[in-house]
Design goal:
85 residues
């Protein structure tokens, strides 16, 4: 019984770690998308070009690309820190 509980707890911890890693990776991907878009906006690229690049480079939908574009604009408008790759 005690071993079963220990095994269950270890499995739960492993699943938790895997979920945390997936979340971290997703957040990093989103930050990379926004950073790339900020750079392209600052370089003077067109919205359509930026969205096309994001869809091609990151495999995201046009709806998601548009949302990330709007977030990139907000970051620039609010002078939110963004990093250059």
């Amino acid at each position: 019984m005690r071993n079963d509980l220990k095994d269950s707890f270890q499995k739960a911890e492993q699943i938790n770690r895997e979920h945390e890693e997936k979340l971290r990776n997703e957040i990093n991907k989103e930050q990379n998308i926004i950073n790339q878009m900020c750079q392209e906006i600052m370089w003077g690229s067109s919205k359509n070009s930026i969205i096309f690049d994001a869809r091609k480079d990151f495999g995201i939908s046009s709806v998601d690309a548009d949302l990330f574009y709007k977030q990139a604009l907000k970051n620039i408008e609010k002078d939110t820190k963004w990093t250059q790759r």
